Amino acid sequence: MNIEREIEKCELFIKNVFEQKGFTKAIIGVSGGLDSAVVVALCCRAIGSENVHGFLLPSGTQHDIKDSHLVCDQFGIERKVIDIHNAVEVLIHLDQSVMEFDVTRVGNIKARTRMIVLYDQSAKYNGLVVGTSNLTELMLGYFTMHGDGACALEPIGHLYKTEVKQIAVELSVPQSIIDKAPSAGLWESQTDEGELGASYETIDYILKRYNKMTSFLINWKSLELHEVIENVADNTVDLKVVDKIISMVIKNEFKSKPPTMMRR
């Protein structure tokens, strides 16, 4: 990957989308993580830091809010802190079993509450909500529908996580953010790689092989799951890991598609 050229492509994409849709302001949830930091940097380069509004949305488990401030300081954007903890608590207590037994449901509630705030602020500033998901997350379905999966544009949605990390260095994202373990901050001690069961390097390697396989095999959709996995696997990666990753891709494919509707 030519990093400088990829950055230029991302900038042009952002600029074109804003011009085509007739907006000038970008609304971004700044989590303190790598992806949102890269998106902030790209938007600042594309439409100017004065047009980028960052929102810090702590919910009781986000201990890296200092990194969110660091990103805003680094790229000179306006920021606003809106604590969503009370709103999340109200929703959680509609069903007491959520808090006690299902951290995933709690995480989804937090992600969707954050997006409610971002879209409300987009109405206030007459701006576009800019997504921060990368290709790895989108392929895996590793996002919350109508939560972090909701946005007007995805500037890094075509880049694998490992590629986003390479770009972050060139964009002068703070090193502490580049080096820390990726996490959505949805519950205590949650990390992406811990939840997925493999490093992003391994996951991206598998996804690249999967994309290559589906590009070359015209009838790959007729294959059984085990046949797809066998085509993707090689001696360098644990077969169980390949099975888990490819199963996630196939199972969650619907999350990146429009709602299913009846034909007239």
Number of helices: 13
CATH class term of the largest domain: Alpha Beta
Portion of residues within helices = 40-55%
**Unreliable parts:** none
Query: How confident overall, as mean pLDDT?
Result: 91
What is Rg?
Answer: 19 Å
When the domains are counted, the total is 2
Q: Describe the sheet with the most strands.
A: 4 strands, parallel
Order of helices and strands: HEHEHEHHHEHHHHHHH
| C-alpha end-to-end distance | 44 Å
CATH architecture level-2 label of the largest domain:
3-Layer(aba) Sandwich
**Apparent shape:** globular
Task: Give a short synopsis of this structure.
The protein is α/β, with parallel strands linked by helices and 264 residues long. It has 13 helices and 4 strands. It has helices spanning 3-21, 34-47, 65-75, 85-92, 96-101, 103-125, 135-140, 161-170, 175-179, 192-196, 200-216, 225-232, 239-251; strands spanning 25-29, 52-56, 78-81, 127-129.
Description:
With 264 residues, the chain is of the alpha/beta class. The protein has 2 domains: 3-191, HUPs (Rossmann fold); 197-256. The chain is built from 13 helices and 4 strands. It has a 4-stranded parallel β-sheet, sandwiched between helices. α1 packs across α2 and α11 packs across α13 (239-251). The longest helix has 23 residues, at 103-125. The radius of gyration is 19 Å and the shape is globular.
